[in-house]
Amino acid sequence: MVQSRDVINYLKNVLGNDYIKVNEPMKNYTSFKVGGPADFMVIPRNYEQVANVINLCKKNSIPYFIIGNGSNLIVKDGGFRGIIINLSELKLVQVIGQRIKAQSGALLSLVSKAALKETLKGLEFASGIPGSIGGAVAMNAGAYNGEVSQVIESAVVMNKDGIIRELSKDELELSYRHSAILKYDYIVLEATFKLEKGDYDTIKNRMDDLNRRRREKQPLEYPSAGSTFKRPEGHFAAKLIEDSGLKGTNVGGAEVSIKHSGFIINKGNATAKDILDLIEIVEKVVKEKFNVELAPEVRVIGEDKIE
């Protein structure tokens, strides 16, 4: 538990009382709706504040973790010992010609809508992804044959020393659900997307079609983190899980969705442990039946709850 009075006073001086939360339940900040309390959550409103918090953590050996919309994250039931840096207030979106510059806390869905408004095509695939720009760049988010790497031009990042630099698309090293952001523990501050002029109705119809398909095929009525597992080379995770007879399998309040077996959902009052135990069961059974190793797409932080 981070308790130093000097640390608390520093955070108050840097951020102000209204942007620091103590013992904050992380279930309120993840799309899975699970997670114990974080010692501290801070909500910076500019890049200088982010750098100041990072430097504080480094100086005092305090663990920290960056979150945006919490849509690809499981926080364990014991919570997080350290500081959660919530970038949701960094959400400015600017359209400059055929480019869109968006801060890391801006939601992908809203950036897609900004593109539609300006009749810019290329972000249709992202209109239904629930994540923020920072997470989308870090994970090279994608859906329906589109992904961030196809449209991003550059990103402004901060390293572990609080130093800011701009990375080109090549320097971002974007691959399937991976990037230089994860490799080097960078923090995404903003990203620039280069799009093309399109037709408003064509763009909107594409977005509407993809969102209709999501509603029909995905269990959006339940908390989840989207697709739970990465796509194994040469296979589809959902098909492997379904062919293993795991649809509807549950642990506590967590269930392999009957609607889409690639999703593990919180059917009500699931704990992080329920979800993680179910992930382990799915991995074990698929390995036994098909000799294919599934890897979770979701990131896991925090510590187990002591009973």
Describe this structure in words.
With 307 residues, the chain is of the alpha+beta class. The chain has helices at 5-15, 47-60, 108-117, 133-139, 180-184, 200-217, 237-243, 272-290; strands spanning 20-25, 37-42, 64-67, 73-75, 80-86, 93-96, 99-103, 120-121, 142-143, 146-147, 152-158, 164-168, 187-194, 196-197, 250-251, 254-256, 264-266, 299-301. It folds into three domains: 5-86, Uridine Diphospho-n-acetylenolpyruvylglucosamine Reductase, domain 2; 93-216, Uridine Diphospho-n-acetylenolpyruvylglucosamine Reductase, domain 3; 218-301, UDP-N-acetylenolpyruvoylglucosamine reductase, C-terminal domain (Uridine Diphospho-n-acetylenolpyruvylglucosamine Reductase, domain 1, Alpha-Beta Complex). 30% of the residues lie in helices and 24% in strands. Strand 11 and strand 12 form a beta hairpin. The longest helix is centred in the last third of the chain and has 19 residues, at 272-290.
Number of H- or I-type helical stretches? 8
Number of strands: 18
Mean pLDDT: 95
CATH class of the largest domain: Alpha Beta
Task: Provide the domain count.
Answer: 3
Structural class: alpha+beta
> Which parts are unreliable, with pLDDT below 50 for 5 consecutive residues or more?
none
Euclidean distance between termini CA atoms: 18 Å
Strand content: 15-25%
CATH topology of the largest domain: Uridine Diphospho-n-acetylenolpyruvylglucosamine Reductase, domain 3
CATH architecture of the largest domain: 2-Layer Sandwich
Strand order of the largest sheet: 6-7-13-11-12
Order of helices and strands: HEEHEEEEEHEHEEEEHEEHHEEEHE
Q: What sort of overall outline do the alpha carbons produce when their principal axes are compared?
A: globular
Largest sheet entry = 5 strands, antiparallel
Work out the radius of gyration: 20 Å
- The percent of residues in helical segments reads 25-40%
EC number: 1.3.1.98
Cofactor: FAD
Enzyme class: oxidoreductase
Family: Belongs to the MurB family.
